[in-house]
UniProtKB/TrEMBL annotation:
Tree of life domain: Bacteria
Protein's name in the database: Phosphatase PAP2 family protein
Organism: Paenibacillus oenotherae
Keyword field contains Repeat: no
Domain Inositolphosphotransferase Aur1/Ipt1 residues, every copy: 82-251
């Protein structure tokens, strides 16, 4: 079943999904949350800086593909990966192959994955007054890309379907123009570690740490579906997933630490200033 005919269709599906996910995760009007997001961008310099930095990292991922095309680096570790894990992906794909499942997992891989990132930003902007979880999400996503990009440049591994003829690229059943419409966002040899895995795991861990049980359950289920989809659709190796899980745990843990550590320093600084001799003098003068 053809689900996407162009990136325009993907954008429409993603927009609708983001609206639904924000409503589900925050139990609030998603358009009001959108207004709060815009307000924070305009009035909160720190918030704006982190959001711009996040966009810059996403743009850097696109630049990486251009850099890679101009490199004379010819190493290829794909055969080594297959020698280690054999026909795991091929066997899994043949065991579970079903047209309805292909459509569902293609939707998860292309739409829900990116909608989850956008919705998380909106939900944490709304629920966290000190924006700790928003900043943690920004740091964690940036870390995912900063760690993965060097591997994509110097440790190239091709997608499974492009190397193993027994594996079909099932994404084409739902998105026939994937190679011409979507491929510019994802290099064919940008497999290890799997960013779909690492970011999904990252968002699930952040959701669990946020205390929002509804959102935690949903993100955890989506992460499991994404991990299954990378094999079923014929894209990633099992080793890619392992690397992605480790990266996701590292990025989420570090992102939360950086966010909380930054705020603790800020609070400590305020307390120090509040108790400084200068303030006492001002109070006496009044």
């Amino acid at each position: 079943m053809v689900l996407f005919d162009s990136m325009t269709t993907v954008t429409i599906y993603t927009t609708i999904t983001v609206i639904f996910l924000i409503w589900y995760g925050a139990l609030a009007n998603p358009f009001s949350i959108g207004g709060l997001f815009v307000k924070e961008l305009v009035t909160n310099r720190k918030y704006l800086f982190h959001f711009i930095a996040l966009l810059a990292i996403l743009f850097l991922n696109k630049i990486e593909l251009q850099i890679e095309q101009n490199m004379n680096y010819t190493s290829d570790f794909t055969a080594w990966f297959q020698s280690l894990e054999g026909d795991f992906v091929s066997n899994l794909q043949q065991l579970f192959h079903n047209d309805m499942l292909t459509t569902f997992l293609a939707f998860i891989y292309v739409v829900v994955f990116q909608a989850l990132m956008i919705a998380s930003i909106g939900i944490y902007t709304y629920q966290s007054k000190d924006r700790v979880m928003f900043y943690a999400t920004c740091y964690a996503i940036m870390l995912n890309y900063l760690v993965a990009i060097p591997f994509y440049l110097f440790f190239p591994v091709n997608e499974v379907w492009a190397h193993d003829s027994s594996v079909a690229f099932l994404m084409l059943d739902a998105f026939p123009n994937f190679e011409s419409e979507y491929r510019a966002l994802s290099g064919l040899d940008n497999c290890f570690p799997s960013l779909h895995t690492s970011i999904s795991v990252t968002l699930a861990i952040l959701a669990i740490r946020s205390g929002n049980k509804r959102w935690a359950w949903f993100c955890s289920i989506v992460a499991a579906c994404v991990i299954f989809s990378i094999f079923y659709l014929g894209i990633h190796w099992f080793i890619d997933m392992c690397g992605g899980v480790l990266l996701g745990v590292f990025a989420s843990t570090t992102g939360i630490y950086l966010s909380k550590h930054g705020f603790s320093l800020s609070r400590r600084r305020k307390r120090t200033l509040a108790g400084s001799p200068v303030n006492y003098i001002r109070e006496d003068a009044n």
